[in-house]
Every structure is written in structure tokens, then in C-alpha cells.
Design a protein that fits this description.
The complex is a heterodimer of chains A (about 280) and B (about 100). Chain A has about 280 residues and is α+β, with helices and mostly antiparallel strands. Chain A is about 30% helix and about 30% strand. In chain A, strands 1-2-7-8-9-14-15-16 form an eight-stranded antiparallel sheet. A three-stranded antiparallel sheet of chain A has the order 3-6-5, with helices on one face. Chain A is globular. The chains are: A alpha+beta (about 280), B mainly alpha (about 100).
Chain lengths: ~280, ~100
């Protein structure tokens, strides 16, 4: 028997599935974990640890923020800067300066100059230090992290799946997951690990007549221009899947397919001209 | 005078000899350990306990050896799973209705 719970957190719809009976306690604890982590990691909450870090440039932080920043910096290193948490100002400049539901999708305000991206950040023990002018956004990786933490809690009750608005963590069982392709939907069965989708088909808006989206290319500080519409990646956990999806998206279809094959990262790439490419051993 | 002193020495010697003999008799030097049934029981119990301890140690050693073998096998299984790239091995395309959907987050 599968028990299900849905709720909103981190600006998206969260879905918890667990194959167990009487798992209400575990479901409530997993939901609580999402709200706890949102209170720490949201850049839209003035009192969150992340907002204090961005405001002050340094912070003696709790273990969760330290860990997520460490993971994000490691991902930046691993992806050669394609994934970068230091894109806060670029997102704000692009108009993503408030929770997504509050953004006017057809704002006529003029576009701001591209925001800064990149810059040094370090974690030493519980101390996080940012260089002058560096501010972090942990939206994507934070959702992956929260999905993993919630899955750890749910797994004590039974095989489970946590879906944080597309960032999925699985612990045991076999879970058929729908993936949008260029044509008919595809179902992938995942038994462990993580899966995430990044793209510019949602979370997009207009500013001064210009189409914008939330996936910033750290090299330009502007919404990424790529021939890909959407990338779904499968990895050992939701955090790595999130990083892989974003990195592959920025790479563009030809390079992304090659990189996914070389790294053995199963991926579904959907191009803007309506092609679906399976990579990384997925057929 | 000399006779009186000699008698005193003789008396003192006799007293020392008497108490010495008493102590020797009280110590029962002729009684062996084998003669005491309580000691015999204790000795037998000690032998039995030593034998049982040896058996227990052998069983524990066998179980530890088995545990170590299984642990090695389990660790190599875990290493094989974690070192393998998660691709088609853990994910496959199926013809089932999805329980959930992933989309741009």
C-alpha cells in the first residue's frame, strides 16, 4: 500500500510517496524537514541563514547550510563552473527577485544589466566566507538536498520516493516516473538514486518584451541560450541529478549527449526543435 | 642457685616445646586437600568451567570468522553498487502509468 502526501514548500509542489502502512508519522516528519530546510536555505526569507550570509558576507552557519554550500562549491568545481551557486545577483537582474508566483509574467520594466556571477566562497568548519559582492542562490541544489533528507526520514518507514517539484529522490522499491519528451510522455522506472529535470519550458517570464528564464549561464550572467528546452538526468542522488541536469542543459544538445555518454549519466535531452535524445546508456 | 636457674630454663624450654607441638598438631599437616569433599567439588567445578570456556571461545571464534567472511562479501557488494555509474542499471524505460512526474523545477 502506498501512502501519499502533497504540500507546497520551497516555491514548488512537493510529493511524498511511501510504500508502507501507518506511515503518517514519517510523512509528517518528512514534510517538517522540508519546511525546516526552506527556513534555512530560502533567499526570499529575510531571516534565513542564506539571507544573513548574503547580507553579511560571512556567517557561522548550521550544518545544513554549510553542507549545501560545500556541495554547491564542489559541483562548481566538477562542472567547470557551469553549475555555480554565485548567481544570486544575475537572477535578481533577470527579474527573479521574488518568489516565482509573485513575478509578473509580462512585466514591462526595462531589463537590468546582466548581473554578476561567480566569485570566491569558502567553508571552513562552520564558517562560510564570501568575497565582496558575492551572493549565493541555492534554489535548485537546496531542493535536491531537501529531497534527499526527506527521503532518509521516509525510508525508515519503507521504500519511498520524494518529488520536490521535479527533483526526485528514491530509496528502495520500483517507481515509475513520467518524463516529458518532445512527443509522447515516457515512463522511467527508478529503484534507487535521484532524478532531476532542468529546463526553460517553465519558470520563465517576460521583461520589456524579452523572454527570460531562471537558468542563468554563469559565463554571461544572463539566462542561458542553448538549443535545449529541457534535460532530465539520473544520478546516484537528487543533488547530483540536479547538478547534472543543469550542467547538461547549459552544454547544449551535442555536447550534453557526448558528456552524458562519457560520464555514464542517463539523460533525456529535449531540444527546442522537437527532438528527444537519449544519452548515458538510456534507450 | 645454679640448680634453681637450670629449672627455670628447663621450664621455659618445656613451655616453648609444648606450644610448638600444639601449633603443629592444630595445623593438621597430615590432612591432604584430597581429603576435603568441598575442595574436591571446587576443583571439579573449575575443570568443568575451563572446559566450557574453551568451548565457548571456539564457538565465538568460529562465529567471528563467519561474520568477517560475510562482512567482506557484503562490503564488496556495496562497493560494486556504489562504484558503478547509475545509468541503465538502475533506471529503465517501462510501459507503466507513472506514479509521479518530473518536470522543470
Amino acid at each position: 500500500m502506498i501512502e501519499r502526501r502533497t504540500f507546497r514548500a520551497m516555491g514548488t509542489e512537493i510529493e511524498l510517496l511511501v510504500e508502507a502502512e501507518g506511515a503518517a508519522g514519517a510523512l509528517a516528519a518528512a514534510e517538517g524537514e522540508f519546511h525546516r530546510l526552506e527556513a534555512l536555505l530560502s533567499r526570499f526569507r529575510e531571516d534565513s541563514e542564506l539571507s544573513r550570509l548574503n547580507r553579511d558576507g560571512s556567517l557561522t552557519a548550521g550544518p545544513d547550510l554549510c553542507r549545501v554550500v560545500e556541495l554547491a562549491l564542489a559541483a562548481r568545481e566538477r562542472t567547470g563552473g557551469r553549475f555555480d551557486p554565485a548567481i544570486h545577483d544575475a537572477l535578481v537582474a533577470a527579474g527573479y527577485d521574488r518568489s516565482f508566483e509573485q513575478i509578473d509574467p509580462r512585466c514591462q520594466a526595462p531589463c537590468l544589466a546582466p548581473g554578476a556571477a561567480g566569485g570566491a566562497a569558502s567553508v571552513e568548519g562552520t564558517r562560510i566566507e564570501l568575497d565582496d559582492g558575492v551572493r549565493l542562490d541555492l534554489g535548485g541544489i537546496g531542493k535536491g538536498y531537501a529531497a534527499e533528507r526527506a527521503a532518509e526520514i521516509l525510508a525508515m518507514a519503507g521504500p519511498c520516493l520524494v518529488n520536490a517539484g521535479g527533483d526526485i529522490a528514491v530509496r528502495g522499491g520500483s517507481w515509475p516516473i513520467g518524463v516529458e519528451t518532445a512527443r509522447e510522455p515516457l515512463t522511467l522506472e527508478l529503484s534507487h538514486g535521484g532524478l532531476a529535470t532542468s529546463g526553460r519550458d517553465r519558470r520563465r517570464w517576460q521583461r520589456d518584451g524579452r523572454e527570460l528564464h531562471h537558468l542563468i549561464d554563469p559565463r554571461t550572467g544572463e539566462p542561458a541560450e542553448t538549443d535545449l528546452l529541457r534535460v532530465t538526468a539520473i544520478a546516484p542522488d537528487a543533488i547530483e541529478a540536479e547538478v547534472a541536469a543543469k550542467s547538461l542543459f547549459l552544454a547544449g544538445s551535442a555536447r550534453a549527449a557526448h558528456e552524458a555518454d562519457a560520464a555514464g549519466v542517463a539523460a533525456v535531452l529535449v531540444t527546442e526543435d522537437g527532438r528527444t535524445i537519449f544519452a548515458g546508456g538510456l534507450a | 642457685m645454679a640448680s634453681h636457674t637450670g629449672r627455670l630454663y628447663a621450664l621455659a624450654f618445656a613451655l616453648v616445646a609444648f606450644f610448638l607441638a600444639w601449633a603443629v598438631v592444630a595445623a593438621h599437616p597430615w590432612a591432604t586437600a584430597a581429603g576435603d569433599p568441598r575442595l574436591r567439588t571446587l576443583a571439579a567445578r573449575e575443570v568443568q568451567l575451563r572446559r566450557e570456556a574453551k568451548l565457548v571461545n571456539e564457538v565465538v571464534a568460529q562465529r567471528w570468522a563467519l561474520y568477517r567472511t560475510e562482512l567482506r562479501a557484503r562490503r564488496s557488494q556495496i562497493a560494486a553498487v556504489t562504484s558503478a555509474p547509475v545509468s541503465s542499471a538502475s533506471v529503465r524505460v517501462v510501459n507503466l502509468p507513472p506514479l509521479t512526474v518530473t518536470r522543470t523545477s
